[in-house]
């Protein structure tokens, strides 16, 4: 009996968007209008690539970025929840599927000593170049029309589950915890026994309720959370059953 917990990162584990938080490192803590207006829907990763070039050109170094990123607050109750999962790792496999990047997530989890809670992190690969500029790449290529060009979370989840099955691991239940519009695609893949936990007041909750109104509801159960304590209460019930 093992459960799979799938977490989004921005506005789920942390209470901010890591990509917009990094702007605090920019001169006057803001981006030039031309750069800010250069974002095109579905091409966030390319936009962040330009932001990182601007930060590099402005002389922002790796250690300053790291210091800034590790000040991001966790969402309410999240530190307790991750501590609880860490204490019960024999029952829970735990992964992150995020449109952030490997450098930011690594910094934040290691600073808070939560990196051991997660078995795998699936996010856009990032690294510092020889000239000290942060670079970011697409996580993968996919053919899903609903998702941003660089990442389909459903594809990540299905490939992970297939790989686990090959290793002889299957799950009693999948619990998907997220907030954003790009979390809907994997949630629609979940089965009747699984559970989606959208954050209250965010895009995922709104999209799930729109589907229910148009009489094409998701198959899985839905439990809305506002504090990660709500998630922990559910997991405690789950392991008692």
Automatic annotation (TrEMBL):
UniProt-listed Pfam families: Put_Phosphatase
Listed cofactors: Mg(2+)
InterPro entries, alphabetized: HAD-like_sf, HAD_hydro_PyrdxlP_Pase-like, HAD_sf, Pase_PHOSPHO-typ
Keywords from the named record: Hydrolase, Magnesium, Metal-binding
Domain of life: Eukaryota
Residues annotated as binding Mg(2+): 8, 10, 179
Enzyme active site: 8 (nucleophile), 10 (proton donor)
Recorded GO MF terms: metal ion binding; phosphatase activity
Residues where substrate binds: 19, 99
Record-linked PANTHER family: PHOSPHATASE, ORPHAN 1, 2, PYRIDOXAL PHOSPHATE PHOSPHATASE PHOSPHO2
Family of the protein in this entry: Belongs to the HAD-like hydrolase superfamily. PHOSPHO family.
Protein name: PHOP2 phosphatase
């Amino acid at each position: 009996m093992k459960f799979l917990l799938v977490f989004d990162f921005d506005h789920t584990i942390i209470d901010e968007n890591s990509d917009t938080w990094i702007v605090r490192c920019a001169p006057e803590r803001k981006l030039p209008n031309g750069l800010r207006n250069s974002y095109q829907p579905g091409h966030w990763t390319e936009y962040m690539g330009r932001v990182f070039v601007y930060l590099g050109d402005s002389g922002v170094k790796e250690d300053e970025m790291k210091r800034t990123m590790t000040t991001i607050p966790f969402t309410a109750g999240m530190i307790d929840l991750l501590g609880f999962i860490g204490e019960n790792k024999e029952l829970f496999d735990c992964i992150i599927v995020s449109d952030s990047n490997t450098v930011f997530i690594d910094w934040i989890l290691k600073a808070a000593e939560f990196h051991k809670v997660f078995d795998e992190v699936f996010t856009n690969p990032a690294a510092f170049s020889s000239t000290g500029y942060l670079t970011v790449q697409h996580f993968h290529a996919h053919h899903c029309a609903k998702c941003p060009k660089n990442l389909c979370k459903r594809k990540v989840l299905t490939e992970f589950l297939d790989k686990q099955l090959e290793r002889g691991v299957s799950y009693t239940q999948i619990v998907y915890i997220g907030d954003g519009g790009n979390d809907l695609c994997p949630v629609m893949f979940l089965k009747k026994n699984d559970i989606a936990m959208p954050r209250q007041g965010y895009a995922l909750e709104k999209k799930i309720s729109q589907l229910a109104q148009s009489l094409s509801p998701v198959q899985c159960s839905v439990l809305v959370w506002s504090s990660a304590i709500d998630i922990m209460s559910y997991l405690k019930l789950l392991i008692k059953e």
